Amino acid sequence: MKSLGLKNLSKTYYDLYEGSHHTALHDISLDIPAGEFVSVVGPSGCGKSTILNMVAGFIPHSGGEILVGGEPVKGPGPDRGVVFQSFALFPWKTVLDNVGFGPKMRGVPKAERDEIAREYLAMAGLSHAADRYPNELSGGMQQRVGVVRALANKPDVLLMDEPFASVDAQTRMTLQDELSRIWEERRPTVLFITHDVSEAVFLANRVVVLSKGHVLADVPVPIERPRVWDKLVEDDAFKELSNKILALVRSA
Amino acid sequence: MNALLPLWSFWVRTSRQWPVLQTLAPFVPVVLLWQAVASWGPFPPAFFPAPMDVVRSFGTLMYKGILPEYLGDSVARLAAGVAVGVALGIPLGLLIGLNRRAYDTLWPVVLFFQAIGDIAWLPILIIWFGFGLTTMAFVIVYTVIFPVIFNTVLGVRSVKIELHRAAQSLGAPPWRILTEVVLPGALPNIVTGLRNGLGYGWRALIAAEMIVGTSGIGFMMFDARRAGSVTEIVLGMIVLGILWYIVDAWVLAPIERATGRRWGLTQ
């Protein structure tokens, strides 16, 4: 695991119809030390998904730098694993082959990558689904596969783009519990994008509030781990911090 | 009514055991109606043959070896034409579907030539290549290639951007994205294109054989017209229908089931 640094990152679009430049992100600086979990929250249109797409290398940035372990990055790469809101599993591959895809691209032989995939599937309680196709699984299970697929490729940084936004509320809490547990076990560096404040607080070491393309606040989350919803749902410190950040988001 | 139940039950059991019965059953009333019109209708037998006449003609032509030979000729032409059409159409479709500039340049051209249609080429092809194989080959390839291109482009474009991105961020280089993401993602559409291409190609082949052929099912039917044998014409029509059914049910449908439907990409 490596650190992720954004230095004066900006994104400007040229609007062809209006014939003018439009600033989506302005001078974003953010340091995520190796092994830290940072959530980015903000109202829709604040540019949070744009940040993730630039860090992942899916879209170019207009100014500033993106550093993984101190090295600037260009374009997409396996050092930054991505978990998508739409899961983005390959429908024509079994769960096992989806998870083994990253190792396959690195040239790991079939038997070995199957072993890696099975190990990671077991971690998420998915061993029984290894030979099934994604469309045969529920949304919650598909996203477990999505998370495991990113982790199995051993990325330096894990990027998560509203990964639990399209599953039902109960499943979402279970997935958050599981992600929290997995993070505690493996300590990956995580950049987590969400519009759900309690989710952001529950998972992260720090919550960054974004507003109109700049950083409004960077709030540490001192709540002790392990964190599970059964305990935190009635926890005063958790509720107080969530409300404080919610107020910041609503003022944004 | 109750007396019919065991009969119905017998039918359900046997037709499950022999699915071919289920396929044949709808044709029973068609053949009966045909026989009725032949027996009691106002047409002379030379003008409107009965089912048994056609069966007899089938027996004769099989015995003489004419039907197997012509059928073999037609199927071989179709297979060769489709193979070439697919070999050209899929790469072209991938190029047009993946590359913006290729799309802008080639798409209008593709639309233009698609609109001309296969048979419309025959007059000029006969002048260029004469009555023969080259002309027929051109017509089949021409007919097959367009549905394959169209559906491949559609398939390539139906692959979601997230799947490209997921593959990229898992370390896939461009050519692996082509083989691991674009091709399998487009496969259900490519199979549809192949299915349409085969169907159109088959029809175009029969038409071409009628006009420029010296063998094949289409030639047989047109030749029978010259000889005034309505029976052989009807036989040719029936052979076309059966052959298409076999290709569709035994070759194309299983491919569709094994790909798109299994993956949840099509219904």
How are the strands of the largest sheet of chain A arranged? 6-7-8-3-9-10
The CATH topology of the largest domain in chain A is what? Rossmann fold
CATH homology superfamily of the largest domain in chain A: P-loop containing nucleotide triphosphate hydrolases
What class do helices, strands and sheet pairing of chain B give?
mainly alpha
**Percentage of residues in helical conformation of chain B:** over 70%
The total strand number of chain A stands at 10
Q: CATH topology of chain B, anyone?
A: MetI-like fold
Mean pLDDT of chain B: 88
Terminus-to-terminus distance of chain A: 32 Å
Alpha-beta content class of chain A: alpha/beta
Number of strands of chain B: 0
- SSE order of chain A in H/E notation? EEEHEEEHHHHEHEHEEHH
Low-confidence stretches of chain B: none
- Shape assignment of chain B: flat
* Distance linking N and C termini of chain B: 38 Å
Summed up:
The complex is a heterodimer of chains A (252) and B (267). Chain A is α/β, with parallel strands linked by helices.
Which descriptors would you attach to this protein?
heterodimer, A: 252 residues, alpha/beta, Rossmann fold, six-stranded mixed beta sheet, globular, B: 267 residues, mainly alpha, MetI-like fold, 12 helices
